[in-house]
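User: Could you check the structure of this?
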Amino acid sequence: MTQGPWPGHARDSPAYRRILLALLFAGLATFAQLYSLQGVLTGLAAEFTIPPAEAALSVSAATLGLALAVIPWSAVADRAGRKRTMSWAIGAAVVLGFLAALAPTFGALIALRFLEGLALGGVPAAALVYLYEEVQALHAAVAAGTYIGGTTLGGLAGRLVAGPVGDLFGWRAGVLTVSVLAGAAGVAFLLLAPRPRGFRPLLRGQGPSLVGRIGANLRSLRLLAVYAQGFLLMGGFVAVYNYLGFHLEAPPFLLPASLVSLLFLAYLSGTATSRLAGGLSVRFGRLPVLLAAVPVMLVGLTITLAESIALVILGLVVFTGGFFAAHAVASGWTPILSSTGRAQASGLYNFAYYAGSSVLGWLGGLFFGQSGWPGVAAFTGTLAVVAGILAAVALRAAPGSAAPAR
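Assistant: Sure, the predicted structure tokens are below.
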């Protein structure tokens, strides 16, 4: 008797909860390492006697490596399996993280960080596809939100752990500590993730080639609209976090750098809203939630224009919550909209997401140089509005855009 397709683990089943926890730890392991250097840039710049902009290349090298690696890793995941691919990626990244902390020269550090980014690309390349293969489709949006929540916690933990440890014992100790924590999170992922039941390996010669799978996804206007969400919204998000610190260290605020670093705690609002967005998507459909997140971001940006530090922080929290809600919906929508090469569809989303981080995050600095913080806010707001218009036009009748019939 032929077995039917695997329907996925039911919500609130033990296996479903284990998958959520496993992906939470995978997100922690990945993004803590990706952004750990951002918390110790001052110490790194002092040791190697380099300017801040050059020190920041230690972060850019890793994000560039990740962006370039997601598509190749997606091909590996199609053959080797999603869980196995993520395990390999986390393990390799932890080893490279240890080596990066011991780098004898700045050039060696940049090379190792690039390789670490290449390794880390295996997790976002496979995580959401793994989720959609293993849980019931109705609840996949909530589960995707949990994974995105793990990425926010990882990014926050990497910065907040490396920073204080680096202040006490040097930047190398800070990075090593994060790598140890990432290794522990990787072990937790391995132990918690249940045996895959929905994965069907793509055999050599079976189905379209890798280029064919990528091409099929790039020909979909709906997927291109989703990729645009990642590119535009992430670009604006990074611009805000890149230049708000400069704004707050200048008059009228004159905050010390130690206090400005605590702004990353605003990420916690994204941890909450990413999961909330998943639940709301099940109830109302993905498109209404995505479109609602855009005005939330705009309101937050507007509040940051105030000359009160309390209002600026409030605005940042609101903006961050809106961004991660939109990101959770867009990234989780990608596998649903793809009929061929879901792993490549997710890989392309991640490529667009990190390309936006690199290109638009840097471009925001030109607006900051010309018009100060209002220029960055206007630039980011424009990106959000364009993203919302593209979504409203291209995704109106897309699968999952509306709430399922009851």
